[in-house]
Amino acid sequence: MTRRYRCTNCGNVTRFDVTSVVRSRCYYHYALDGELTIEDVEELSRVIEEVSCRWCGTSRFVEVLEPARERGQE
Question: Cα–Cα distance between 7 and 57 in angstroms, integer?
Fold first, then answer.
């Protein structure tokens, strides 16, 4: 599930700059001429360090939105 954000300062819910650290495992395939192609990228972990609003430029007022409940579930 993808996280959704909202800036309570300006109301933005669509544009954010997200700074994160990603740990991954990748298959490196080198051609005989030395050119690298990266294949089979597996994300092992992701840590979100900061989320800032693209509209008003602040991270102070950004909150994580709770996932919307599906119809019929309480």
Answer: 10
Residue 62 CB neighbour total at 10 angstroms: 20
Pairing between strand 16-30 and 4-7? Answer: unpaired
Where do the structural domains in the chain lie, given as residue ranges?
Answer: 4-65
- In angstroms, the CA 29 to CA 11 distance is 45
pTM: 0.70
Under-70 pLDDT residues of the chain: 1, 68-74
d(CA 51, CA 63): 9
57 Rama class: left (phi>0) / alpha (psi -120 to 50) / beta: left
Residue 28 pLDDT: 97
Instruction: Count the neighbouring beta carbons within 10 Å of the beta carbon of residue 44.
Output: 8
